[in-house]
Amino acid sequence: MSSVTLPIVDNELKVKAVTYKSKYAPLLIKEISIPVTPGSIVKQNELLVQVKATSLNPLDCLMKNFNKGWLGDRVLGCDFAGVVIKAGSNTVFKEGEEIYGSFMEVFQRGTFSEYILFDPSTSLVCEKIPNGMSFEDASSMPMVSCTAYQCFQFYKGDLKDKKVLILGAGSSVGSYAVQIAKHYFNVGTVIGTCSPRSSDKVFKLGADGFVDYTKGVTSKINELLKFVKINGKFDIIIDVVRDEIVIDYFDSLLKTYKENGVFVTVNGPYTDDFKNIGLIDVLPSFRRIKQYTKYALGLSNYKAETEIVHSSDTYGEVIAKLYEERGLNFSINSVRDIYSDFQEGYDLIEGGKIGGKVVFKW
Ligand SMILES: NC(=O)c1ccc[n+]([C@@H]2O[C@H](COP(=O)([O-])OP(=O)(O)OC[C@H]3O[C@@H](n4cnc5c(N)ncnc54)[C@H](OP(=O)(O)O)[C@@H]3O)[C@@H](O)[C@H]2O)c1
């Protein structure tokens, strides 16, 4: 039993949270009420967690900036780390356990709140924090590392000694894709595209080479073609940043579906400017639709898949193994105080292209 005194009044937990009404309304820290179950506080399938750290994803800005205000006050955020204060009898967690996770704020209250009450079986991620990992590090990774891990699940076969191209290796998702490829799946060669500011980081994560995307499309494609000429085609290409020009070069860059080759797009907007995002920025491009259609009709030898993060039975073990055996690079841009710094931190993510997570301590 936890020694925390819960601020419950008339079966409602009164907590501070980062909230918003719509795209146009400011983010505000204010008190919200979370209805609890009389007596037990949680239902059998629920957890009550005291939040210790949260982090932001581009998705959180999308959720705010597509919100027209019809749903009333929303609580920001998907990712969190914290301590279980109450555990329902049907959950696998115990009171006092340190956990991290991610759930979609579109369906429920977000995670930027002193306490969160949720059903772990419906969350994207809900895992025990590996021994020695801080709340800040744990909160920085669930959405992006789970997305990165799931990209590899589209590959049918053993990835050992295979060749992987990660478009956007300097991004948060990309940085986990590099680590997971090299140190979990033991792939032979990882090449990443990134800008010079991220090249050291990408090498340290385990990449064998990088291509500077800031030199332009022609230079980038020529570099990749040069690599393939010497080393052979890629077994899997993971596109974190919608760099879909490579679709036009599948014949030269990617193995065919008969050789298990696969191209995986991490679904996301075609802009980094999340403040001014519109519907057109989130719809799949004509190039992508054409490729999917050609493959579905049997007119293309190249398989293209789309990753949308979902819950996974094996993700937690993969992260724990990597962390315990080798350590993980968490790719954190900055750690901030939630009460003094939430707006500045949010603005950084909304502006795009910072490369790395903004984490908040509660
Ligand atoms: N489908 C899903 O379930 C899911 C889940 C999570 C994220 N996402 C999406 O995945 C994308 C990445 O998210 P994130 O959190 O990893 O973003 P992030 O950390 O903010 O990544 C931004 C970085 O991407 C790199 N980049 C931008 N344009 C590039 C290009 N043309 N080529 C190569 N690198 C480029 C830049 O790094 P450098 O310039 O420093 O190299 C930039 O700093 C977002 O669109 C997000 O919405 C989707």
Task: Explain what this protein looks like in three dimensions.
- Helix 4 links the parallel strand 10 and strand 11.
- With 362 residues, the protein is of the alpha/beta class.
- It has helices at 58-65, 135-139, 142-152, 172-184, 196-205, 217-231, 250-253, 286-296, 315-326, 338-351; strands spanning 8-9, 12-20, 28-35, 47-55, 74-75, 79-87, 98-102, 115-118, 125-128, 163-167, 189-194, 209-212, 236-239, 262-266, 303-307, 332-337, 357-361.
- The protein folds into two domains: 8-141 and 330-361, Medium-chain alcohol dehydrogenases, catalytic domain (Quinone Oxidoreductase, Chain A, domain 1, Alpha-Beta Complex), CATH 3.90.180.10; 144-307, NAD(P)-binding Rossmann-like Domain (Rossmann fold).
- It is globular, with a radius of gyration of 21 Å.
- It is built from ten helices and 17 strands.
- The strands form three sheets. Strands 4, 6, 7, 8, 9, 16 and 17 form a seven-stranded mixed β-sheet that branches. The protein has a six-stranded parallel β-sheet with strand order 12-11-10-13-14-15, sandwiched between helices.
- Helix 3 packs across helix 4 (172-184).
- The model has no long low-confidence stretch (mean pLDDT 95).
- The chain starts with 7 loop residues before the first strand and ends with a strand.
- The chain binds NADP nicotinamide-adenine-dinucleotide phosphate.
- The site of NADP nicotinamide-adenine-dinucleotide phosphate has 32 residues, from helix 1, helix 3, helix 4, strand 11 and helix 5.
